[in-house]
Amino acid sequence: MKRLFIYFIGVSLACSYSCSKKELVSHYERPDWLKGNVWEVLDNRKEFSIFLKGVERAGFKEILNGKTIVSVFAPSDPVFLNYLKDRNLTSIEQIPINELKKIIGYHLIYYSYDKSRLMNYQPQGSQNVQPAFAGLYYKHRTRSQDSISEEIDATDGKLKKVYHKDRFVPILSTTHFQTKGIDAKQNYEYFFGSESWSGENGFNVSNAGITEYDIPADNGYVYVVDQVIAPLPTIYERLAQSATYKDFLSVYDRFRNYTYDEQASINYAAAGDSLFLVNYGALPAIASEWSYNGESGIPDYANLGDLSYKAFNVFAPNNQALSTFFSQYFKAYYPSMKDVDMLPLAMMLRNHVYAGNVVFPAEIGKNPDIKTVDGIPIVFNTQSDVGDKAIASNGTFYGLNKVLIPEAFNSVTGPVMVNPKYKIFMYMLYNSGMYKTLSSRDIRYTLLIPSDEEILNTLYGDSYIFWNEGSPLIFGDEEVQIQNNDGVKVAMSQRQQELFVSEHIVYDDITNLAGTKVYRTRNPYNYIFTKDGSMYSTASYNSNEAVSVMPIAGNWYNGKSFEAAQTLLGETRTIKFTLIGAEASSNPLNKYAEFSKLLAKAGMIDAGSSLSFLFGNRFILFAPDNATVLSGIAAGLIPTDKTALTEYLKSYFVSIADNSLGDYPFPGFGIQGTWNTTRRTGYNVYRQLTLVDQGTNLRLKDSDGTSIPIVEYLPQVFNDGAVYHINKLLKP
């Protein structure tokens, strides 16, 4: 009985083990819905043997075999045979291994995408879909890559090893063109040729159409293509293929520099080596395989939005167009294009690049986003003005038969951009951004341009201005400088350069110097005067020194340009301190010396507290001249008591801020009205004066209605106010 029990238990366990084993095997059997990995899917179809042979020879088999997820664009054997035949080859083994890696790798894109995700890739994921950008994230990273190359860095003469990243392939879907509101067939075939578009129900991938979409595999999707996808060059490589654009490329390469790539050096460099990326400073990095290289701080590989959306679009003028451009603008000043200063060349180049989404011909002149970095629309005839065109791995290329001239070359800044004698002023215009302001077609300007020699002889505050050329091979290494309080040369700030330049920007045309006229400059409360055939800044007028100017010939579309024999800076001296020394014959306020004595008697210009009752506000002073004051003293019209005198003298001062004045009054300016003086007569009540603009002159009306003429057409303008000459006293 015991043996029978043991036998029964043994049979039961054996049965149980056998049944469990069958269930376990059944549980882990391959489900019927699994299709196999990409390699198996292609191999089972027996029509991709050449492609698979290339995959294996290029070292990508394990990727297709399931090592990672992947989307594959697979050309069939007949398609691949046609590709080989067109290149006079009979076997894929005849393709050099490095070239084969590029070709095969260009058919493999990172990650697994079905058809809908390739038609409308959204880098933020399904939770953050951007309908306005449907289809516009058009580039995808492939496994096609160039080997590390070596270049000589022109800026330091050293050999640099350049790391080349994976190429991107454009996938152009009907969704892309629908979002832009342009015709897919017409715009695609503009680049790839007649009858090349076959993406009506999906997309084309670069030059190839799709004959079968998103065949599922365990580790991705397969798309069958009707052509071998030729690895696209970068825009730089495409330009270098044609001698027609060698001059454009030569100018562009003047801005070429190299940035150390720490991560690539760690991952891919030989021991002790450093790897670099090629860039072009503020210009698009058209030699870079990637349109984003970590500029914003996000790792390059992680910024899928910029990598897939952003394209470098280059509208490159051919050699003949650049030659004509040089002859028209620079030949009178430079022996050749390679001698032209880098700044005007940078501005010209920036007019021919757009870093945004890929640009198709139907968008030129219609899409408001397609504009230069200065906000100028990029417009040309996509038929008659274009000789060559291509879509590249990192953008598009349009070969033009003309130069798109920057506005700054034909506005009042034109002479500055082409003549090297105005180099420092040119860099000030650029650094301050004022060249953009001066490109307006809505405002008339006169630009007064000092030469380098005059600028370097200018005392700006307590320092002369200096120019540091830096390396002439590195754009941006130059610097306008001043000395700080310790005597150390430091960069002149952007704001300081803006203020300096603005002193030389006049609103309106100065057509002649005859008569007497006032012109506003861009800096508030600063002016240019013309009088009796001469020109003055506020400072030179106070010193009675005319500034010699000469018109610069040219058809500037928004005004006039003059060369100035000296800088025209506004007056830096103040009334409050100039009055203290008014008794000196050389003092610009000497004719008000007697008025100054009254102020001193009243204790109103004591050192350290001069005119303190104005609380630092800008002001107008209606100042009686010496003869008027002496006559008034003799007639007993001026109080002698100090307190009374103080209150009386405050009647001659008008605070700009307290009267909400935006400008000083000049004949014809229309700045007039009844204003509070600084003399208080009650609680929040002040003695008032009325100024009347009579068109050709100004007159004051005292509180009793007495009319007092402003004797001179031009006041003396200082840093803290303006002095107007009167020859009658105000009533006490």
From TrEMBL:
FAS1 domain mapped to chain residues: 35-229
Residue ranges of coiled coil: none
Protein name (record): FAS1 domain-containing protein
Species whose genome carries this gene: Sphingobacterium athyrii
InterPro entries tied to this protein: Adhesion/Biosynth-related (IPR050904), FAS1_dom_sf (IPR036378), FAS1_domain (IPR000782)
